Amino acid sequence: MDLDAFRWLLTDDGQRLLAAAGEELRSAGDDSLAVQTRLRRTADPTHVATALTQATLRVRARAKFADLADRMYFTSEGLEQATRLRVAEHRAARLVASSAHTLIDLGCGIGGDLVAASRAGLTCAGVDLDPVRVEVARANIDALGLAGAVEVADATTIDPSPFDVAFADPARRSARGRSFDVDDWTPPWSFVERLLTGDACVKVAPGIPHGLVPRTVEAEWVSDHGEVKEAALWSGRLATTVRRATVIAETGLATLTDEDAPPLGTGGVEVRPVGEYLYEPDGAVIRAGLVTAVAAGVGGGLVDEHIAYVTSDESFRTPFARGYRVLEELPYREKQLRAALRERNVGRLTIKKRGVDVVPEELRKRLTLRGAEEATIVLTRVAGSGVALLVQPF
Length: 394
Ligand SMILES: C[S@@+](CC[C@H](N)C(=O)[O-])C[C@H]1O[C@@H](n2cnc3c(N)ncnc32)[C@H](O)[C@@H]1O
What we know:
The chain is an alpha/beta fold.
């Protein structure tokens, strides 16, 4: 979508066609070809294409922006790169709690983070290199009745010092696709390092190596409904700990920091034999290196010093891990494992694994199970040897 097409969409005619496209899509389900044909009877094909694309993006955007999506605007790539509302709202709440009042978003895209920050009460300005995204972000601020200014500018030339906080979410795509190399980010890592010498928050890939995080900066890993979505680096007075794991679930939000994590070994959390319960820490906890905090929380230990499974003799409900009751240990070798599962009439098998070289889908196929029962097994390593545990989620 180019700038003219988007500007047309904001006119009265554009808004009418967009509303009609939305209505048609709601009643036609997936049959967008039929919708296109109907709309083309009364409107210009190019305008129909623009309106229909936008209406389709709004439907897709509900996964990230819930009800707000129906009033917002997107580009396909801008939506893909945008922070989901629940995660952006958590960030915005942290910023407000830090007593920040003003924020500059240096590379705001279509405004995912900008919208959340503005809704939380921060006075926001955003810049982006891409004129279409700037126009879209501005339209989003307007459409949601928020305050904020958005301009086309190169973030690397901007002095963030007049603002309480600078935020950046560098694009992690190069011409070759998604990039894990920080030198491919735009704006680049050198810009991020500079920002992190002041009061700033920078969203980064969850796979960021701990060694890259500057010493005085807090790194926070965030998961939403069990999936790790991002890491955020907090600097200056926004940094309140070294490492943090934040877990967002339907029931609310919970957070662990390195102060909750005892050392591994004497006087801290120990490696111990598998007990009655097994806990699989949330990905954010694992990425943050806070597995011993989960062990301490459930009165347990680790099954192996290098593996992120916690075991205990007590059952706890914790937002930071999925809990399983250990029913029995099965043979680890494939032939004997197949026999044991067949004996138990298992047909549907969930395979969890950690620290062992197994591809669950391939193993499941090779096991050729046909029974009526459903089961979960955990394949892992204990004291250097593979083990298979029959478990039941609780
Ligand atoms: C990952 S997106 C930001 C998404 C945004 N946080 C959201 O939730 O919608 C990164 C953005 O940075 C912009 N960008 C890259 N380099 C830039 C630069 N030097 N100056 C300004 N914007 C830049 C890209 O155009 C892109 O829109």
